[in-house]
Design brief:
Layout: H1 13-28, H2 40-50, H3 60-66
């Protein structure tokens, strides 16, 4: 089995059509699977949020002061 990573910027109509084609094609063919899981950076951020490792601020100014 081979695995490929395709990055699609969904701003153009062609890109949206291509993505819709891939999703539709994968539904009809069991030899293709599309993994829609978040990337590792996003997964880590989600875990940090669940674990309470977040910074809470009261205003936008406070947010930018903490960056």
């Amino acid at each position: 089995m081979s695995s490929y990573t395709i990055k699609i910027t969904k701003r153009s109509k062609k890109a949206k059509n291509f993505l819709m084609f891939l999703l539709d094609y994968a539904k009809d063919n069991d030899f293709i699977s599309i993994d829609k899981s978040p990337n590792p950076v996003t997964r880590k951020a989600m875990k940090d949020a669940r674990d309470g490792k977040v910074t809470k601020v009261e205003s936008v100014k406070e947010l930018f002061d903490n960056i």
